[in-house]
Amino acid sequence: MSIFSKQLIEKLQIEQIKQAIQQAERNTSGEIKVHIEKHCKTEVIARAIELFHQLELQKTEQRNAVLIYVAIHDKTFAIIGDDGINQKVPANFWESTKELMLHNFKQQKIVEGIAAGIQMAGEQLKAFFPFTQGDKNELSDDISFGN
Q: What predicted TM-score, i.e. pTM, was given to this entire model?
């Protein structure tokens, strides 16, 4: 864990987010990744797509990974899914998830907002990609951090 991550989010908050990911993934073959950094130096969706590929989220077997990207100091974020999940969720799903997260963020409830996004993504993943015998956790549940 970098020094940056410790300054940005307290250890207890990191554990809360990780537990939210584990809970959301418990009943699905889908994967959820959270990436947090201080600043977004490009357009937020472009940065999220760049990270999606850097973190190799497109390599899940069923193409059912979700990335929640947050640039704390710039107060911006994005939530994107891979092709497998995008083909299944309702058209407005990512936007409604963003709205729920934003509601929390506006109240300075950053961890709660991230956890709410994780929970909503997990519900959709469970509905469309239920856990089956032999499923494995394809991605680390740890938060990744940038600069």
A: 0.92
